[in-house]
Amino acid sequence: MAAAAAQDAHEQLLHLKLAFLAGEPPACVLALARKAGGGSVTPDVQNFLLESCIGNKADGRQNCTYATTILKKIIAEVELSSSVVIDGLYEEFVERMLSKAKDSLLNRADHIYKDISFLSSTHDNNSPRLLSVVARLSCSSNMLEGDTGCSLWPASLFLSEFILSYPKVFSKKCCFELGSGVGLVGVCLNYVGASKVILTDGDASTLTNMKANMELNNLCIEQEDSTILKESTNKVECKYLSWEEVSERDLWGYQLDIVLGADIIYDPVCVPHLVRVLSMLLRRDGKHGKTNAKTGDEFVTEAPVAYIATVVRNVDTFNCFAKAAADAKLSIVNVTSSAAPSNFLPYMLSYDRSSVQLLKISLLS
Ligand SMILES: C[S@@+](CC[C@H](N)C(=O)[O-])C[C@H]1O[C@@H](n2cnc3c(N)ncnc32)[C@H](O)[C@@H]1O
Q1: Integer Cα distance of 175 and 153 in angstroms
Q2: Among the atoms of ligand 1, which is closest to the Cα of residue 159?
């Protein structure tokens, strides 16, 4: 009984720390701090925040504005409840206020490093949850920066959970993502052993940020024209790809198995172009498809499939996509329930998993 309670307390503190590192909204971090303290932010929880979260500046990647906001909220909440605010919290707040001023002078305040930790789902009373994969991402606090591609969207969290839940689907497969944004899906594809990972985006500043993120995760970036790329495994290619501009020729040479996309169906103007790109990528022909090794027939190929995670914000836009896809002879199957991913992000209160739909798309034969 006591062991189970200790395990529970340990897990709540772990969730608090991971939420802070993931840059969760301050209200969510505060909610977890309250939960860890049994209803209030106790001095023990304040100490934990100070020592394990806010005070841990070892790698110098923390965003002062974010940490200062968390501190401010915690201090205000504890003062309001007439409880004790530990001295260290006040001291850290003052120090942070000074660094924050320096940050804004250097114009670094708009980006935040997020550590997205996926927790293994195997959990019993004897062994705590283990961290299976952690992706480090520089993200903008301005959701519109880089044509929305410098922020992390819930659909890519869902797609990443899907990849980690069904690793065999992606292992040893050549995976090609559209509208990759900050690149989280690429980190997960690498983790499950995809033979090739090609991330693409049509926004130049998003691409620059994505490449920096791949380096942050120790993933090797290959140049598009590199011959080594064609033979090597576990390399990430970050490619400029605009759905409006891309031609068949730009896609020659990619022997794709799986096409991916997260939160890319939202602009009705882009929909016809997106469907055109999907049709090109999913086409079963010698240029793109893979020869089926089992049949040995060079004309019979395994057709690639696409997995698109999407939040339906506007039904008309989604219907427009569905119609354009049907006209292009693409089959769309909603696999949200039948292929539901595990919950690897239990500490992320801001992530509404139920808002995301997962579509499996293939070319009708
Ligand atoms: C809402 S963001 C999603 C980013 C990422 N997949 C995620 O879920 O976190 C949409 C992404 O699609 C890209 N995008 C939008 N329109 C595009 C187009 N016409 N061609 C190529 N990329 C486009 C944007 O640059 C942005 O990175």
Answers
A1: 20
A2: 8
CATH class of 143-363: alpha beta
Closest C-alpha residue for ligand 1 atom 17: 202
pLDDT at 286: 47
Domain boundaries, the chain: 2-109, 143-363
Tokens encoding 88: 């260290």
At 264-321, the pLDDT tens digits run 999 999 999 999 999 999 986 644 545 444 444 444 457 899 999 999 999 999 999 9
What span, in angstroms and rounded, lies between the C-alpha atoms of 94 and 84?
18
* Lookup: tokens for 173: 């497969």
Closest by CA position to 170, among listed 190, 199, 200, 198:
190
Place of tokens 């200790």: 6
DSSP letter for 50, please. Answer: I
Question: What is residue 97's predicted lDDT score, i.e. its pLDDT?
Answer: 83
Mean pLDDT of all residues belonging to the chain = 87
Residue 177 pairs with which residues in a beta bridge? Answer: 199, 260
Residue 177, judged by CB atoms within 10 A of its CB (0-12, 13-18, 19+), counts as buried
3-state secondary structure of 209: helix
Alpha carbon nearest to ligand 1 atom 22, residue? 202
| Residues in the ligand 1 pocket, defined by CB under 6 Å | 147-149, 152-153, 155-156, 179-182, 201-203, 206, 241-244, 262-264, 270, 273
Q: Could you tell me the distance, in angstroms and rounded to a whole number, from the CA of residue 267 to the centre of ligand 1?
A: 10
Q: Give the residue among 58, 30, 314, 308 at the shortest CA–CA distance from 178.
A: 308
Strand duo 236-240 + 196-201: pairing: parallel
